[in-house]
Specification:
MdtK-like, about 85% helix, transmembrane helix, transmembrane, Multidrug-efflux transporter, mainly alpha, MATE_fam, single chain
Length: about 450
Amino acid sequence: MSVRSEAVKTWKLSGPIILGELTQMALGIIDSAMVGSISYRHLAASALVNSVMNIPFVLGIGMTMSVSQSVSMAHGRYDSQKVSHYFYNGLWVCSIAAIFIALLLNLGTGILFHLGQDPEVAILAKPYLQVMALSTIPMLMFMSIKQFTDGLERTRTAMVLSFAALPINIFLNWLLIYGNWGFPRMELLGAGFGTLITRIIILIALATVVSVHPLFSRYMAVRKNQWKLKMATVKELLHIGVPSSLQAGMESGAFAVSGIIIGTLGAVQQAAHQIALSCAAFTFMVSMGLAQGGSIRVSNAWGRNNWSGIALIGKSTLLSGLCYGIFCAIFFVTARHYLPTIFNDDTEVVSLAAVLMFYAAVFQISDATQAIGVGLLRGIKDVHIPTIYVAIAYWVVGIPTGCLMAFTFKMGAAGMWIGFLAGLTFASIFTNVRFSRIIGRKLNG
C-alpha cells in the first residue's frame, strides 16, 4: 500500500458521493430559477423557507451519518448480520428524527411572520414551508438508505438516483409551477409538491434496489433475525449521530448568523458576501464528499483493528484535501474578478466580491482540511471532543473574531471572512493533530 494508491481508492469511493451532493445543490438552484421566473417575491419566499429549514435539515443529515459509520465498521469485520442490524435500526432512528423535524417545522410556520420580512413574502412562504417540511421525511429516509449503501462502499447506486431526480423534478416543476398539461398553476407551492413527489420517488427506487439487487441480498437474507430494534444499538447510533448533527448544525448556524451580521452593513456587502459564499459552498461539496469517503474507509479499517491502514488512509485523504484546497485557492485568486460577474453586474458589488474571493481562496485550504479532520475522527468513533473543537472554532474564535475585524477594525464583510478563516484554521489544526496523536498512540502502544 502507498499514499498514492490509498488516495486513488478514496477518490474513487468519494467521486459518486461528491456528484450526488452537487446534484442536490443543482436541484435547489433549478427550483430557485423556475420559481424566480414568476416574480421576485416568489423567489424571496423560496429563499426564506430555505433559510428557516437549513439548520433543522442539516441536523437530520448529521444523524444519518451514524448509519454509514456503523455499517462500514461491521462491513470491515465481514459481519453481514451486524450490517443488516445497523441498517434496520439506523433507518428507524433517522425516520423518527425526520418525522420530528417535519412536525417541528410545521408547528413553527408562524416564525415566518416574525423575521422582519415583507408580509406578502411571508404569506407566500407559509404553505411552501409546510410542504417542504413534509418532504424532509422521504429525503432523510432516502439519505439513511444511501448511507447504508455508502457504508458498503457502493456509492454509485444513490448517485444514479440523484441524477435521475434532476429531470423528474424539472418536469414536475414545469407541470405544477406553471400549470402545464391541464395541471393547476400552483406557482411556489407547485415547486414544493414537485420536490416532495421527487423525493418520494427516489426513496421508493432506492429501497427497491436495496431489497432486490444481488449486491445487497446477503443483508436482506438475515432480516428475520437482525431486523429488531435494540436500545443498545440505538444508543450506539445516537453516540455518533447526535455529535455529528451538532457539528453540522453549529457550522450551518455560524454561517447563517454571519450572513445576518453582514446584512447589517448594507445591501452591497450582503450581496458580495453571498457571491463569495456561494462559490465557497460549491467547492466545499467536493471537500465534504472526500471527507465522507475517507471517513467510511477509516471506519472499515477500524472494524478490522487495522491501525496502520487507518494511518495511511488518513494521511492520503488529508494530503488529497490539502492539494484540492490549494487548487481551489489558486483558481479563486485567478478568477476573482470574473466569477462575481456570473451572479451580478453591479460594479460596486462585483468589486467587493472580488476582494472577498481572495479571503475565500485562503479559506479553501482550512475548510477542506478541517472537514477531513472531523471525518477521519468520526471514522474511529471519536466524536465528542471534535464537537467541542467545532463549537470553539465557530462560536468562540470565528464569530467573535469576525465581529471584531468587521466593526472595531472597520473591515466590513472582509472582517467576517477573516473570522471564518481563523475559526476553520483552528478546527483544522486541532482535529488533524488529535487524529495524528490517536494514531501515534495506537501504533506505538
